[in-house]
Write a structure and sequence with these properties.
The chain is of the alpha/beta class and about 325 residues long. The chain is built from 10 helices and 7 strands. It is elongated, with a radius of gyration of 26 Å. It binds uridine-5'-diphosphate and magnesium ion.
Length: about 325
């Protein structure tokens, strides 16, 4: 069996009218490319005619492969399953609603060939409403850049190209697909971005409202946590614990001095309570740090994913 060189992964939810034009545009764009490809569409529990139409395309063109979810799990779940099934050495993600322009795929691939591991689309002139869409997205992008240290302008753009070994080694859930470049950067991955088209939605309507902003903010906190604290809990909790314990200890010594040397009562002083509290908290924090270290080790062992990714290995058998 011949493996395709490129896999296109498309999560799709209730986009019945976009499917035919999507097929045409993608096929036209990819025919300019002298490479074999597969298109994996994940029907994310659509309740309209989407699945039937996808099946028709699959019948006519075996490069199109369809997965149907039992219910609506969300776009990230679609990516996750698509990434697992993708056979190509390069994986492209694109929206099903035609807001991304399939013609841009060629330029993404050219960048990958330059040696980048992830090439992200940057919707330079976005077509959507300012207050409900572009403003929250702008703020989120700034925040994600700050938190992750990866400077991208547009994390939310689905149109991206990845080397397959990158996405095969990253777990995504929740709304985390937009953080793949950020998470990947901790593995030493070369990321870049290129301007891409953004078009108005022609059919159907957007599946997201302003609530997505909150989900993304929670995920930012999670990513930050996993990044910095995820690998060394003892450093964070232990550090806090030592600080509290030390302050508590000093206060306690002061109180002992007041009691024994100055001969004053200390039983009714709030400071005594504070000293005791700080010492107990300090001990607990250090313990949480230690337990955290154990949990992290179990977690990492249980994940059979490599913690260290090599870019190249010369002179080894495959
Ligand atoms: N989508 C999906 N599952 C969902 C919501 C959306 O697979 O639960 C797909 C949808 O069909 C589209 C893409 O994700 O291909 C982006 O969704 P949408 O266009 O609604 O988001 P927006 O462009 O408004 O940010
Ligand atoms: Mg859209």
């Amino acid at each position: 069996m011949n493996l395709p060189e490129i896999s296109i992964v498309i999560p799709l939810y209730n986009e019945q009218d976009s499917i035919a034009p999507l097929y045409q545009e993608l096929t036209a764009a990819l025919s300019n490319l002298k490479k074999s490809y597969e298109v994996i569409v994940i029907d994310d529990g659509s309740t309209d005619l989407s699945f039937g139409r996808l099946c028709e395309i699959h019948e006519a063109d075996e490069r199109w492969k369809i997965v149907q979810f039992r219910r609506n799990y969300g776009q990230t779940a679609g990516f996750s399953v698509g990434f697992n099934l993708a056979a190509g050495a390069i994986v492209i993600t694109i929206d099903a609603d035609l807001q991304n322009n399939p013609q841009d795929i060629l330029r993404l691939l050219a960048k990958i060939e330059e040696g980048y591991d992830i090439v992200s689309g940057w919707r330079v002139n976005r077509q959507e409403a300012f207050f409900s869409r572009r403003l929250p997205s702008m703020l989120a992008n700034r925040l994600i850049s700050k938190v992750s240290g990866v400077e991208l302008h547009d994390y939310g753009c689905t149109l991206k190209a990845y080397r397959s070994e990158i996405i095969k080694n990253i777990q995504i859930y929740g709304e985390l697909h937009r953080f793949i470049p950020a998470v990947a950067s901790s593995l030493g991955i070369r990321t870049t971005e290129i301007p891409v088209d953004d078009r108005m939605r022609r059919f159907g309507k957007s599946k997201y409202g302003i609530w997505r902003t909150f989900r993304v903010i929670l995920d930012i906190i999670l990513v930050r946590f996993l990044f910095i604290y995820g690998t060394r809990p003892i450093q964070v909790f232990g550090g806090l614990g030592l600080l509290m314990g030390t302050v508590g200890f000093i206060l306690g010594m002061m109180l002992i001095y007041v009691k024994l040397v100055m001969g004053e009562q200390i039983g009714d002083r709030p400071l005594l309570l504070l000293a005791i509290l700080l010492i107990i908290l300090g001990v607990q924090m250090v313990s949480i740090g230690l337990i955290g270290e154990i949990v992290i080790r179990i977690y990492q062992e249980a994940q059979s994913r490599p913690r260290y990714m090599t870019r190249e290995q010369l002179g080894f058998e495959d």
